[in-house]
Task: structure prediction
Amino acid sequence: MSYINSVLGPIDSADLGFTLMHEHVLVAASGLSKSYPDLLGPDREARAIATLKRAKAQGIDTLLDATTFDLGRDPELLQTVAAGAGINLINVTGWWLDVPRFMLGVGANQMADEFIRDLNEGFRGTTVKAGMLKCAADAEGVTPALETMARAVARAHVQTGVPIMVHSYPAGQVARRQIEIFREEGVDLTRVKIDHSNDTTDIEYLEWILAQGCFLGLDRYPGRLVSPHSRTVTLKRLMDLGYGERLCPSHDCICLHIHNEQADGSIPPEHDFMRSNPDQYLYMHRHVIPELMAMGATDADIHMLFVDNPRRLFEGR
Result:
């Protein structure tokens, strides 16, 4: 048992319930939801609450909201949505990919201090505390700026014991370098989740990550590049190989995003990510879990993936 900061206050890890470990209520530019909220479409809060209420009604108890500052984090919005939908939302601190040039001289210790404040005191000007750490690298690899953020997250983890989620790029096997950095910084790799790992079907690479002690976030559904079916085949194969206790399936779904103007000047009622996944947070229930069950997974397996594993990652066991 351990306590985790949700956006509405601490919750017991035993009360997480069915948990999706990589989702987003909002993704935008930093500050956009305050300065230019109409770009996110009408009735933003009501739409998000309705969407999460549907998820809650189908048995989803907790969402890990992976939206960092540079992805447009809006703590007050998350509080309103969590309260309105009756669902647990756990937000992250750390950094995604957008490091502006005026921050290129900021050091890892400086950022570690900021991330620790987010965890222990709350995001500035709010009562919302982060419940997880996040860093990222993508196709360009771990650039110097992203290495600074990775080391800052690692140092915040070492000082607080809070687990880390990692945006990675499996096609380039970028986690090899990310994990190397974590080792140098003294991170407990059993408290690390390497995300977007189902953007590949390379079992050998995924087994290497698991052999380091990490969890895998198989969190892009329906996704691109790799078909949803192949993603589920990879998930089931890893379960059959004995790694089921360190797998966390999820969607990387985005509820609120910019509604882009069309060529004719019209603004569509739905953003692009919504059109690519109209099931939103229920894609797992409607498609993935039934397919897993058809492949031979049991109710106990589903409980392990969505209830036991998130709790195990947070509790460090």
